[in-house]
Amino acid sequence: MRWLSTLTAAAIGTGAVAGSIAAATPSVAAPQRAKAAASTVRCTSSNQELASKLSRDISKALKSRESMASLSFYDRPTGTRCTSDSSKRYDSASTAKTIILGALLYRSGGTLTEAEDALARKMITDSDNDSATTLWKQLSDLKDPAKPNPVRIQEFLDKAGMKETVLDREGSWGLTQVTAGDQAKLLRIFSGDDDSVIGGKGRAYALGLMHQVQSKQRWGATAGAPLDSVIHVKDGWMQRSQNPDVEPFDKGDWKVNSMAALTGQGYDSGLAVLTENNRVPKGHAANEGWDYGIDTIETVSRAIYRDVHPDANGYHPTRPNLSDTKSATTG
Question: Distance of CA 239 to CAs 27, 37, 254, 331, Å?
């Protein structure tokens, strides 16, 4: 299966694949991290001073990092939006699970069966891969079981206006190509009041699951969020293998993503940050690429929340060891 040649088991965290994953094997150390080309940060706001400050501080945060990163942020109360390379596509890893959830709620009208509810809860709160695979197939055309065609998920993307997202047509849902712009758009759907895609019951259900994500998977775009806000999050991570059929750029590359929405107490914002090129320096432990990606996301996240909510006490997410995750390969 294509997935087995593109990922290593020390690379996937807790959820990026449809199908089994090969056992971890020693691999040649990935290349040193190379400084990624900086992209322009653009911010608009009803508060021009805030927009200017965010542009400066996000740019500074990204400049300090040596990996590629894209982001999309919105804050409804201040009419603020910030983007940086938000249309660049990345391997989704487990952030694809929010898309699967959205498609499930869209298809069902927000009312799930007991079995669907159990699968959705495990998929989001525990980032369970098997549950995601089952739901992916349930939302697919299975004329060719080896390549479940996710037609109902595509119908959801079309309705949601998520035109930049490209679903994996061979069943490896963690290789779905996502953009920060589309993932932020999904957060806006979940946290908004527009019933045209998903009704109020379904939106509340989605946010409820993302609020209940286990503590070890609440890092990333939550860092620095005001402590009195209600935090909804989904993270994703995976490492590409060293196999010969993997593109040179991707060999050993850690993909680390995070998306979070804040609600309650007047808060109404969303942030999606996607990263890649989180390389492991030669001779260093594999988890350093994973940690570096998380650090990049959290550096950006703290800069944003510090500017938008300067007087708030910020959230400090738990940072588990990679070996502590349910599956130390994809998340």
Answer: 12, 21, 4, 10
Q: Interior CA angle at 97 toward 92 and 103, to 5°?
A: 115
- In this model, does residue 224 exceed pLDDT 60? yes
Residues 6+ apart with CB under 8 A from 102: 156, 160, 186, 189, 190, 197, 198, 206
What's the CATH number where 83 sits? Answer: 3.40.710.10
Number of compact structural domains in the chain: 1
3-state secondary structure of 235: strand
Which of 18, 168, 197 has its CA nearest to residue 108? 197
Q: Is the dihedral of CA 97, 6, 273, 179 positive or negative?
A: negative
Which segments within 45-183 are labelled E, that is strand? Answer: 68-75, 80-84, 90-91, 177-178
Task: Please indicate whether residue 327 or residue 222 has the higher confidence score (pLDDT).
Answer: 222
Task: Return the C-alpha torsion angle 140, 144, 145, 147, nearest 10.
Answer: -70
Lowest average pLDDT, out of 19-33, 39-53, 195-209, 268-282, goes to 19-33
Here the tokens at position 146 are 């080896």
CA–CA distances in Å: residue 124 to residues 54, 150, 309: 30, 19, 28
Which tens digits make up the pLDDT trace of 302-328? 999 999 999 999 999 998 777 666 444
Helix locations, 64-126, DSSP H: 96-108, 114-125
Contact (CB, 8 A) for 182 and 92: no
Q: How far apart are CA 94 and CA 41, in angstroms?
A: 26
End-to-end CA, the chain = 19
Instruction: Tell me what the mean pLDDT of segment 74-98 comes to.
Output: 98
Measure the CA–CA gap between 57 and 248, rounded to whole angstroms: 33
Q: Quickly tell me which residue has 């609600």 as its tokens.
A: 263
Rounded mean pLDDT, 288-296? 94
Q: Which domain holds residue 301?
A: 2-330
